[in-house]
Design a protein that fits this description.
31% helix; 10 helices; 4-stranded mixed sheet
């Protein structure tokens, strides 16, 4: 393992075109689960100038109709803050091409008298946790800081403190690592949409203040490595500036490129899809391993086949940081948590409308919410894992 290096992660705001689509897909998933906890959903959304297109497959109760879906989509766009020429929640054209779930898929997933509920698709899934920096909820510091910058800008925009801010934004943070630990910030890049009347100097000063508040004590970024709106202007933004698609920000959603990603996107998919639910399970297990003090880093891989309930393989890598028998710890994972699709959903209570918050600022490195969101971020398995050794 390299000890001294620079590493970078990026984030995008809730108003980024791809994140608008993720939010719409998860808004519809939450709507479906509110009416039927056993609803099936794989919603794909595309957004462009004055247009939202919804596709995919679903198995829904009769209480959900297309007018209800359209109202939910408009509310979602309004909450993000889009009321601009080229993309306005009130006037955007919404085209809904959602169709019924394939009977072939349903046959593989549904339980029967002689068959355990199977995975909704084949796939490899990764989960990760690290204690590289305090107060980052066991997630990579580069990604945590990138998310934090955009969350704070969104807070300032939503509460009206900074009136020239608009929804679309991106951030990128590069940290300097020594002996495998982040010790200082090297470079920060922030691009944020704004109104036409604000000066570049005010934009830069505001963003600089946000970044300074969020950096750990003693960390500073040199002005020569602090980039704000590098093109000089960012007025046209959101789906009017660039087409958005569900599932195009999977690295932002997970670990910022710090470890492997299985390839599957999350938003719009119900929890029978293991590329979502098993990603939450692997994160949950990895975070509890690190929280228990059994390793400083942990990455877990699961492999599934469509229609087959139990994972085909379980793999653990602690990158040389394990403080116990790593092979024993790997064998322990399926014992402390049922890793079948039903087992994961039951353990983490995933058949609830808790998914919209996950579509914004990452699915991991979050705090479990009272409303039930982010249950995979709990560390309630840590004591059990410690007792096993």
């Amino acid at each position: 393992m390299r000890k001294n290096y620079l590493f970078t992660s990026e984030s995008v705001s809730e108003g980024h075109p791809d994140k608008v689509c993720d939010s719409i897909s998860d808004t519809l998933l939450d709507l479906f689960l509110t009416h039927d906890p056993q609803a099936r959903s794989a919603v794909e959304t595309m957004a462009s100038t004055d247009r939202v297109i919804i596709c995919g497959e679903a198995r829904l109760p009769e209480t959900v109709d297309r007018r209800m879906m359209e109202d939910a989509v408009r509310k979602c766009i309004k909450e993000i803050g889009y009321e601009q020429k080229g993309f306005d929640w009130q006037t955007v054209d919404i085209q809904n091409y959602l169709h019924k779930q394939s009977g072939d898929i349903a046959r593989g997933v549904d339980e029967s008298e002689n068959k355990e509920e199977g995975a909704g698709d084949q796939g490899i899934i990764f989960g990760y946790a690290t204690n590289e920096l305090e107060s980052t909820e066991y997630s990579p510091a580069t990604l945590f800081l990138s998310h934090s910058i955009l969350k704070e800008l969104a807070r300032l925009r939503h509460n009206g403190e900074v009136k020239w801010l608009r929804p679309d934004a991106k951030s990128q943070v590069t940290l300097r690592y020594e002996n495998g630990r982040p010790v200082d910030v090297d470079t920060v890049v922030v691009s944020t949409q704004h109104t036409e009347d604000v000066s570049y100097e005010e934009i830069r000063e505001t963003v600089r203040g946000v970044v300074n508040r969020l950096l750990p004590n003693g960390w500073t970024v040199d002005d020569k490595k602090f980039y704000v709106n590098p093109t000089g202007r960012f007025v046209i933004g959101g789906p009017d500036g660039d087409t958005g698609l569900t599932g195009r920000k999977i690295i932002v959603d997970t670990y910022g490129g710090a470890v492997a990603h299985g390839g599957g996107a999350f938003s719009g998919k119900d929890p029978t899809k293991v590329d979502r639910s098993a990603a939450y399970a692997t994160r949950y297990l990895a975070k509890n391993i690190v929280a228990a003090g059994l390793a400083d880093k942990a990455m877990i891989q699961l492999a599934y086949a469509i229609g087959v309930a139990r994972p085909l393989a379980v793999y653990l890598d602690t990158f040389g940081t394990c403080k116990v028998d790593e092979d024993k710890l790997e064998r322990l994972l399926p014992e402390v948590m049922d890793l079948t699709p039903r087992g994961i959903r039951t353990h983490l209570k995933l058949n609830r409308p808790i998914y919209l918050p996950t579509s914004r600022y990452g699915h991991f490195g979050r705090t479990p919410e009272k409303e039930g969101a982010f249950p995979w971020e709990k560390t309630d398995l840590a004591d059990e894992l410690k007792r096993a050794f």
